[in-house]
Amino acid sequence: MTLAQRVTRIQPSPSTAAAQRVRELRSDGVRIVDLTVGEPDFDTPEHVKTAAVEAIRRGDTKYTPVNGTPELRRAIAAKLARRHGLDVPLDRIAVGGGAKQVIFLALTATVDRGDEVIVPAPYWVSYPDMVLANDGTPVVVACPAERGFKLTADALRAAITPRTGWLVLNTPGNPTGASYTHAELGSLAEVLLDHPHVRVLTDEIYDEIRYEPGTAATLTQVEPRLADRVLITNGVSKTYAMTGWRIGYGAGAPDVVAAINKLQSQISSCPSSISQAAAVAALDGPQDFVEETVAVYRTRRDRTAKLIDAVPLLSCTPPDGGFYLFVDCAGTFGHRTPDGTAIRTDADFARYLLEAEQVAVIHGEAYGSPGYFRISFATSDEVLAEACTRIARACAALTQEPS
Ligand code: PLP
Q1: Rounded Cα gap, residues 301 and 284, in angstroms
Q2: Phi, psi (deg, nearest 5) at residue 137
Q3: What angle (nearest 5°) sits at the alpha carbon of residue 63, between those of residues 61 and 66?
Q4: In sequence order, which residues have a C-beta less than 8 Å from that of residue 156 and are 6 or more positions away?
Q5: Which domains does the chain have, with CATH numbers?
């Protein structure tokens, strides 16, 4: 018995694998300072939990429509109107088990063998493997720090071929936090108008976790002529600390939305009725939780970025959004650890941090960008302070190799 090629050609998610490694070390009694976590350390807001309990008591415990309850799709449409001034009809919204599932289904629905999907790097770890799992070809476009880790119009134009099916745009991005401005989206839109066969999947899962004003633009708002080709994906996981509830959505491109619904009707029938009721409360209810948590993230971002940037051999700039720092560790290459091991890659450095100081981070190559590592600051001030002390100590213990 063999496994299907679509499974053997992909890797398990590196962030899930890192979390598993941390769990194993902890169960062996090792005290790990874990900076790999990609989810808020806050609890789901109380009114959201109450809405779920009420849904259970009311008996909302049955299958819902495949594309989500009308209440939830109305709440999603209201959010898109509030945030971007968009008017998205309810039949152009698909609700699924997390943004991750919606993105996967969008690719399953549209990608045939050999179709290309443009993925700007640094990228969220899952995009290339999702493309591969769906028989597509990821076309990774390097977007260096000098360009704010963002795709330029020229780089997009150069990457498009007759086989291009999608451009994936993640803003604010994981792992860098880079956010596209209105003007930057405008110049990408100009290129896209010249290539009507290319669809755009905008992953906006961190759209409410932003630190700079004026960076919440979305492509359809900037260029309404692209509306039928853009699928906005988002969800409640990060904004409302609801990662375990598994609710995400796709809005826009009508043919893709219809195809996602068709697939979902054969895969899961619908997302959880109870989680959908909770998501309505999150989107329609008071938004103080979002403001309060973003204020906390902002303080952690500023403090941690300053401490890390002050460490010789490392550098980082505070991100515009999200809750990650993408730290340049290329300065450690060509150094040796106290036990004589050479540091030549970001993976070597991440391994050294784990072994020498028990600090768990994710190396940049997992995001398609060697020379970096990712820190999540969705964790307490104490953990962050302890982590920075340990990382500084690890760097101070390195010695340069003779040239
Ligand atoms: N998109 C990005 C960029 C993410 O970082 C994540 C989670 O880490 C997701 C999507 C998945 O979100 P969800 O929990 O809604 O599946």
Answers
A1: 28
A2: -120, 115
A3: 140
A4: 118, 141, 167, 188, 191, 192
A5: 5-43+289-398 (3.90.1150.10), 60-284 (3.40.640.10)
Mean of pLDDT values over 255-267: 97
Sheet containing 362-363, strands listed edge to edge, beginning at the edge strand earlier in sequence: 324-328, 372-376, 362-363
Binding pocket residue ranges, ligand 1, CB within 6 Å: 38, 98-100, 124, 170, 174, 203, 205, 235, 237, 243, 248
Helix (H) or strand (E) holding 129: helix 126-133
Q: State pTM to two decimals.
A: 0.96
For 276, the enclosing helix (H) or strand (E) is helix 273-284
- State how beta strands 199-203 and 342-343 pair: unpaired
Closest ligand 1 atom, CA of 100? 16
Q: Average of pLDDT values for 367-372?
A: 97
Q: Could you tell me what percent of the chain has a pLDDT over 90?
A: 90
In 3D space, the residue among 310, 268, 339 whose CA is nearest the CA of residue 105 turns out to be: 268
Instruction: Decide: 169 and 220 in contact? Cβ < 8 Å.
Output: no
Q: CA-to-CA distance for 83 and 80, rounded, in angstroms?
A: 5
Number of helices (H), then strands (E), belonging to the chain: the values are 14, 15
Spacing, Cα 167 to ligand 1 middle (Å): 17
